[in-house]
Specification:
Blueprint lengths: L2 H25 L10 H11 L2 H7 L1 E4 L5 H7 L3 E4 L11 H16 L8 E4 L17 H7 L2 H17 L4 E2 L23 H7 L2 H6 L22 E5 L13 E2 L3 H8 L1 H8 L4 E4 L3 E2 L2 E2 L4 H11 L5 E3 L16 H11 L4 E2 L4 H13 L5 H17 L19 H14 L34 E5 L2 E3 L5 E3 L2 E5 L4
Parallel strand pairs: 1-2, 1-11, 2-3, 3-4, 5-7, 6-8, 7-10
Antiparallel strand pairs: 8-9, 12-15, 13-14
GO molecular function: beta-glucosidase activity
Organism: Acorus calamus (Sweet flag)
Protein name: beta-glucosidase
């Protein structure tokens, strides 16, 4: 071969390589390769994203305002069912799955095809879904003193949630209720933080067991029958002054760490994926704006690597009245370390405000990158990129007999004998049959109606059809 011909051939080869290189690059995207290390996938995807795409990942909007077109246009990272919102009255598992997949297709049609993550309250079973199994609230489960039972309830709940195409639950609530006047004491496993810590065993029930040697603080979700969990509400929501909801928890640093924080230690160690911030304050400082606790303590000290999510319109409530200075609220909340913001309706206002603040160096780009990296880490870890769409393979498990039997077991174990007489030799119970008809139940309040739900099925929007009820009316003397 002549040298001139060789040069021409080599030049032709180089031109062909240059021509086909973009095609090969378009076909292979490192972040879509499950065989690549997690951090490599994260770096590859992050460097491809625009500011608009990154901010979109930080937004969670409600189902009632979501469409595939909106998810595609604004690169929305997450959706939720707020306040018992359902796709249709008495929606079946098939309806839920079809709704989830239709919305997910909007996210997958974006330039980078980043899947959205859908979250729902499943705080005592899949309680928003028609015919789902309902379990006792946390106050009842705490009374069982049975962490393994709670773990099994987590497993059953995860199966029913996955059966409806949803991969993320806003549970468990690990508040330590210190004042019975708090109207949400039923959400707390106990006033004893040790009991609450033990009940965080629901997290591996929901998410699966972390593998041996898995890094501390990194979220873990075993794909298929498990869901991402959310420990809430960080931190001290059960210790507010006089038990007033969303109020101020007045306690010193040692008290906060020894009473209200221990369950979060356990949750992080067990690989919890997300943590939700509380509406309440600590010594006058709103938790949604508390940089020292959210970033310095939770993220830096406890090494939590999942993402931090706000509560419903949580950043709005940084000011009083809410939304009075929204730009300040956005700045304070994102700066504090909130990664995903539950908007849930006025998402364009949040997107525009946050975009303006980043472009004008009010919020540093490094804070946005940290938030998005955490969100994507959870999505990668739970296999959402490989399996973004749901199917009906688990639909038969919604309200199945096995789960109903587990609910009955939980009710039996949650029953508590408050008093059995002053003497162990002469117990008060059981009562003689001849005297039981002459007993009058009194209460210091004018009217009290107590319903003990033994076991039942969800009818949606927190309505329950029960198989057995005990009703007590009290009378004033």
């Amino acid at each position: 071969m002549k040298m001139g011909s060789f040069r021409i051939s080599l030049l032709s080869l180089l031109l062909l390589l240059c021509y086909y290189a973009p095609i090969g690059e378009a076909k292979y995207l490192k972040y879509k390769d499950p065989n690549q290390p997690l951090n490599a996938r994260l770096r590859d995807l992050m460097q491809r994203m625009t500011l608009e795409e990154k901010i979109g990942q930080m937004v969670q909007i409600d189902l009632t305002v979501a469409t595939p077109e909106i998810l595609k246009k604004y690169f929305i990272g997450s959706l939720l069912s707020g306040g018992g919102v359902v796709p249709a009255p008495r929606a079946s598992a098939e309806t839920w799955v079809n709704t989830m997949n239709g919305l997910q297709n909007g996210s997958l049609s974006t330039r980078l095809g980043i899947p959205m993550i859908y979250g729902i309250d499943a705080v005592h079973g899949h309680n928003n879904v028609y015919n789902a199994t309902i379990f006792p609230h946390n106050v009842g489960l705490g009374a069982t003193r049975d962490p393994l039972l709670v773990r099994r309830i987590g497993e059953a709940t995860a199966l029913e949630v996955r059966a409806t195409g949803i991969p993320y639950v806003f549970a468990p609530c690990i508040a330590v209720c210190r004042d019975p006047r708090w109207g949400r004491c039923y959400e707390s496993y106990s006033e004893d933080h040790k009991v609450v810590q033990a009940m965080t065993e629901i997290i591996p029930g929901l998410q699966g067991d972390i593998p041996a040697g898995f890094p501390k603080g990194v979220p873990f979700v075993d794909y298929g029958t498990k869901v991402a969990a959310c420990a809430k509400h960080f931190v001290g929501d059960g210790g507010t002054q006089k038990g007033i909801n969303e109020n101020n928890t007045i306690i010193d640093y040692h008290g906060l760490l020894s009473i209200h924080m221990p369950a979060y230690y356990d949750s992080v160690i067990k690989g919890v994926s997300t943590i939700m911030v509380s509406y309440s304050s600590w010594n006058g400082k709103k938790m949604h704006a508390n940089y020292d606790l959210v970033t310095k303590f939770l993220k830096n000290y406890l090494k939590f690597r999942g993402f931090v999510i706000s509560d419903w319109q949580g950043i709005d409530r940084i000011t009083n009245p809410p939304h009075a200075n929204y730009s300040y609220s956005v700045q304070a909340g994102v700066h504090a370390g909130i990664d995903m913001v539950m908007v849930p309706y006025n998402y364009t206002e949040f997107i525009d405000d946050l975009t303006y603040q980043v472009k004008n160096n009010i919020i540093p780009m490094s804070r946005i990158d940290d938030a998005v990296r955490r969100i994507l880490r959870v999505k990668f870890t739970m296999g959402l990129f490989e399996h973004p769409l749901a199917d009906l393979s688990l639909a038969h498990l919604v309200g199945c007999k096995m789960h109903r039997e587990l609910a009955r077991e939980a009710v039996r174990k949650s029953l508590v004998l408050l008093k059995n007489g002053q003497s162990t030799d002469k117990p008060l119970l059981p009562l003689p049959k001849k005297t039981s008809k002459s007993i009058l139940v009194l209460d210091p309040t004018p009217i009290t109606w107590v319903t003990n739900v033994v076991v039942g099925r969800s009818l949606g929007k927190d309505r329950v059809e029960t198989t057995s009820q005990v009703e007590l009316r009290s009378l004033m003397p």
